[in-house]
Amino acid sequence: ELSQLKRDKWVNVQLNLCVLWEQLLRKLRVRKFELATLDCANSSHTLDQKTKAHVEKAVKSQSGGIEAMVKKYNAKLKELVALQGKGGIWRGAYVPPMLTMEGLYQLDVDQDIWEDSRGDIADFPDGIVPPWLADPSVKEGIQLSQEIANCCQELERCKAE
To answer: At residue 93, what are phi and psi to the nearest 5 degrees?
Structure first.
């Protein structure tokens, strides 16, 4: 059974995708920590120039690695999409969305990088991908609904003043 899984292209690409995703998250967290260190140094002036320069250099060097990792991740996603409908793979099998560099460094929770399901159909009850995960219009609707709720709260605060 294990030797059969080793030859299964879909499983191999999914595993590679999962590894890339985890490495990318780790790099983003490290970058955030280094930026926080740099921010602390700027506000408290406790770090000397050498340490500050070292942290700035580390942050800049992380950017190239993160961009390369996103390109590798997206290439694996394209490979996964190409495998859909072939060799017994269900044509409607869930594939996570492509990642973009836009807003990735802001660590916004609405970014696709934070989507926790890596495409295993066992993650979904009854084998059905929920619309909030698969349908971009539903995703956008949720975000707009939250924005409307936030605006209503802000309006109430303004009226109270």
So the answer is: -60, 140
